[in-house]
C-alpha cells in the first residue's frame, strides 16, 4: 500500500510556500508589470487561486468575483442534514481574502468577452483582465430528468449545493413519520464528490436509527460501481443492517422521471413513492463557463492539465469541478490544489517562464457515523493530456474502531485546514 502525505493545515501552508519558492525567479520580471487577473467563483478553487496569486506576486491586481458574501461549504454538510453539525459551522466570509489585497467583487458575472478580455457584471459594470480564471463549480442540469426542475427541487431537494437546500432536506427528515422511506436518486458520473451520496445515506441512516428506527433508505443509482464501495458496504452491514438498500444501474436503479406532486420516482424497471425524496440530478460546469465559451458539448471544460488553460478560449484558465481533469476527483481538495497550481502557472507565464507539470495532493474523507470515517488519498499528475493517479491509498476495509475514530478526527482537521487556507 502506498502512503501519501496527509492534508493538514501545515501541509497546505508548506505546499503554498513551495509554490512561492518555485516562482520566486518570476518576481523581478513582474516588478515592472501590473497584470490584472480575475477569478470568477469564490469556492475552494477560486479562493486558493486568488490568494496564491497574491502570495506569489503581491504586485498583481487580483479580483475575485463572487455574488455571495458568505460561502457555505459542501464538505461535512451531510452532517448538517443528519443533525450532527450546526449549519453555521459551514459558513465563512471573504474578509480575510480581501485583507490579502484581493478585490472581492460581490457581483455575479453575466458575460465574458474573450476577444476584448472583459467581464460583464450583474450591476452593469465591466472589468478588464489580462488573465481570467474560471472556478464556477457546478450547476444542476434541470433539463436532464423528466419532471425535475428548479421548482421541483423545493419539494424534492437535491442538497448538492450547500445552503437552503441542505436545511430543507434536514427539515423534511425531521418531519417524516417513523416508518417512512427516504429515497436518494444518484446520477451517473461525472458529478461533484462521487462518494458523497453514499456518505449521505449513511448519516441519514444514523439519524433514523436513533429517531425513527422503522424507517428505511433506498438508493436508486445510475451507476453499477462507485468510489470506496466496499468500505461503505462493510460499514452499512456493521452499523445499519437492513436499513439501506441500493439498486444499481444493472438492477434498474437509473431514475428516468419524477413527479413532485406525489413524491413518485420512476426508474427503468419500477416506480417508488418516497416519504422524503432526495433527487440529485446530473450536473455540468457552472453557467458562466458556457457563457465564456469554455465548456464543450459535454457541459464541462477541456483544459491543458499543466497550466489549466482552456482548450477552447485564449487567456482563460478553468479549475475545480468545472474542469475535465481525468482521474482527479471533483472535490474541494482537488479544487484547492488546482487553484494553487494554476496560480503558479499564470505567474510563470506572465514572466515568460515555461510551465512545470504539477503534482497535486488530494484527500477525500467520508463519515458514516460519529467517530467512524474512512478516506481516499492520492497524488495526481498530468498524463496523456489528463490527470492520472500517481499514488493512491484507501482505508482498509477491515479496521478497528480506533482506526475509524482516528480518521474521523483527521476528517475534521482536514476541514479546518482547507477552510482556514481558503478563508482564514
TrEMBL record:
Residues 166-281 form the Sulfide dehydrogenase [flavocytochrome c] flavoprotein chain central domain. Gene3D superfamilies: FAD/NAD(P)-binding domain, Flavocytochrome c sulphide dehydrogenase, flavin-binding domain. Coiled coil: none annotated. InterPro entries: FAD/NAD-bd_sf, FAD/NAD-binding_dom, FAD/NAD-linked_Rdtase_dimer_sf, FCSD_central, FlavoCytC_S_DH_flav-bd, FlavoCytC_S_DH_flav-bd_sf, SQRD, TAT_signal. It is an enzyme of class 1 (oxidoreductase). SUPFAM superfamilies: FAD/NAD(P)-binding domain (SSF51905), FAD/NAD-linked reductases, dimerisation (C-terminal) domain (SSF55424). Residues 357-423 form the Flavocytochrome c sulphide dehydrogenase flavin-binding domain. GO terms for molecular function: flavin adenine dinucleotide binding; sulfide dehydrogenase activity. Residues 36-148 form the FAD/NAD(P)-binding domain. Keywords: FAD, Flavoprotein, Oxidoreductase, Signal. Residues 1-31 form the signal peptide. Its EC number is 1.8.2.3. PANTHER family: FAD-DEPENDENT PYRIDINE NUCLEOTIDE-DISULPHIDE OXIDOREDUCTASE (PTHR43755:SF1), PTHR43755. This is Sulfide dehydrogenase [flavocytochrome c] flavoprotein chain. The gene is fccB.
Amino acid at each position: 500500500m502506498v502512503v501519501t502525505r496527509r492534508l493538514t493545515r501545515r501541509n497546505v501552508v508548506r505546499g503554498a510556500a513551495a509554490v512561492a519558492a518555485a516562482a520566486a525567479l518570476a518576481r523581478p520580471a513582474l516588478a515592472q508589470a501590473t497584470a490584472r487577473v480575475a477569478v470568477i467563483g469564490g469556492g475552494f478553487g477560486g479562493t486558493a487561486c486568488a490568494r496564491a496569486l497574491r502570495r506569489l506576486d503581491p504586485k498583481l491586481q487580483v479580483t475575485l468575483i463572487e455574488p455571495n458574501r458568505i460561502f457555505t461549504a459542501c464538505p461535512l454538510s451531510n452532517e448538517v442534514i443528519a443533525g450532527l453539525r450546526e449549519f453555521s459551522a459551514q459558513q465563512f466570509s471573504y474578509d480575510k481574502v480581501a485583507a490579502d489585497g484581493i478585490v472581492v467583487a460581490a457581483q455575479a458575472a453575466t458575460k465574458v468577452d474573450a476577444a476584448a478580455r472583459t467581464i460583464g457584471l450583474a450591476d452593469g459594470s465591466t472589468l478588464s483582465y489580462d488573465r481570467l480564471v474560471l472556478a464556477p463549480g457546478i450547476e444542476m442540469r434541470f433539463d436532464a430528468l423528466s419532471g425535475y426542475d428548479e421548482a421541483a427541487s423545493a419539494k424534492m431537494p437535491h442538497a448538492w449545493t450547500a445552503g437552503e437546500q441542505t436545511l430543507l432536506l434536514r427539515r423534511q427528515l425531521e418531519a417524516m413519520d417513523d416508518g417512512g422511506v427516504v429515497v436518494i436518486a444518484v446520477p451517473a458520473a461525472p458529478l461533484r464528490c462521487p462518494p458523497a451520496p453514499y456518505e449521505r445515506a449513511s448519516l441519514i441512516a444514523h439519524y433514523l436509527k436513533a429517531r425513527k428506527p422503522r424507517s428505511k433508505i433506498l438508493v436508486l443509482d445510475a451507476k453499477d460501481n462507485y468510489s470506496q464501495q466496499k468500505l461503505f458496504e462493510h460499514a452499512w452491514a456493521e452499523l445499519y443492517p437492513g436499513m439501506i438498500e441500493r439498486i444499481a444501474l444493472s438492477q434498474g436503479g437509473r431514475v428516468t422521471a419524477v413527479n413532485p406532486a406525489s413524491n413518485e420516482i420512476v426508474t427503468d424497471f419500477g416506480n417508488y413513492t418516497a416519504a422524503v425524496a432526495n433527487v440529485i440530478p446530473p450536473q455540468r460546469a457552472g453557467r458562466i463557463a458556457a457563457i465564456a465559451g469554455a465548456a464543450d458539448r459535454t457541459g464541462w471544460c477541456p483544459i491543458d492539465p499543466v497550466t489549466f488553460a482552456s482548450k477552447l478560449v485564449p487567456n482563460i484558465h478553468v479549475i475545480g469541478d468545472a474542469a475535465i481533469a481525468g482521474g482527479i476527483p471533483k472535490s474541494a481538495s482537488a479544487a484547492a490544489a488546482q487553484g494553487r497550481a494554476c496560480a503558479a502557472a499564470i505567474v510563470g507565464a506572465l514572466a515568460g517562464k515555461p510551465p512545470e507539470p504539477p503534482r497535486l495532493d488530494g484527500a477525500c474523507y467520508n463519515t458514516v457515523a460519529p467517530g467512524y470515517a474512512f478516506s481516499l488519498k492520492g497524488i495526481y499528475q498530468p498524463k496523456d493530456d489528463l490527470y492520472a493517479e500517481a499514488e493512491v491509498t484507501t482505508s482498509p476495509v477491515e479496521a478497528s474502531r480506533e482506526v475509524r475514530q482516528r480518521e474521523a478526527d483527521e476528517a475534521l482537521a482536514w476541514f479546518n485546514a482547507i477552510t482556514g487556507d481558503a478563508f482564514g
